[in-house]
Amino acid sequence: MRASLIQLAVSDAEPPAERRARAASLVRAQQGADLVVLPELWPLGGFAHDLWSEGAETLDGPTSDAMAAAARAAGVWLHAGSIVERDPDGPIYNTSMVFAPDGELVHTYRKIHRFGFDSGEAVVMGAGQEIVTAPTEFGTLGLATCYDLRFPELFRALLDAGAQLLVVPAAWPAKRREHWTLLARARALEEQAFVLACNTAGTHAGVEQAGHSVVVDPWGRVLAEAGPEEEVLTVEFDPAEVGRAREDFPVLRDRLLGIPAPVQR
Fold this sequence. Notes:
Layout: E1 2-7, H1 16-28, E2 35-37, H2 49-55, H3 62-74, E3 77-86, E4 92-99, E5 105-110, H4 121-124, E6 133-136, E7 139-143, H5 152-160, E8 165-169, H6 177-191, E9 194-198, E10 203-204, E11 207-208, E12 214-216, E13 222-225, E14 231-236, H7 241-248
Helix pairs in contact: 1-3
């Protein structure tokens, strides 16, 4: 399969409507890919806390409309990164959206682990409550977002739910870039799954972004890694490698804590 990670630059100078149109154009350009991934909170910015409340949108808002049309035009599965979702009956959420090649919004994931400790996302956003996977013809996607990478129990739950490809959009800052790469490799190795981690580039709200989107295979090997600037990282790999890795090195069979992986007889 072919996956394209769009490491979009986010800056304060570009209005959200213009960035939305530019992101849609980049998605449409990925015809021939099977899966396209955008970063976390790219319409407003992952650290632009002061814009979130006013700029929040519903799941049938302008970003969803633009991404649905782009997925349909390119004929790709599109993980459109995440938006600030306005829930009419609750708080705002950091919500990822997955579109099928016909443009239908088929899966959403509200970020469970909110970053900021006593400020920012941790204070103003609600926490998701559901583990979300997305079956496709090339394998089951497990959905996580940015700070989620630091919590291995979420990824074990995604593993037990059948995930083979772990998709992680992010707005990860440059000052902790080494954590980003290390955690992406760790999650791939421990779950024996592919990790497709798509970060933002640029600087917004005074926070420089790390870039360095990365695709890691089930053995923890980095198949491709972006630089610090905006780029489209495209990589081809065989999703069947997940099954081969789990069969050749059946470490998951020896789990003693939590829910054990099913034993194949």
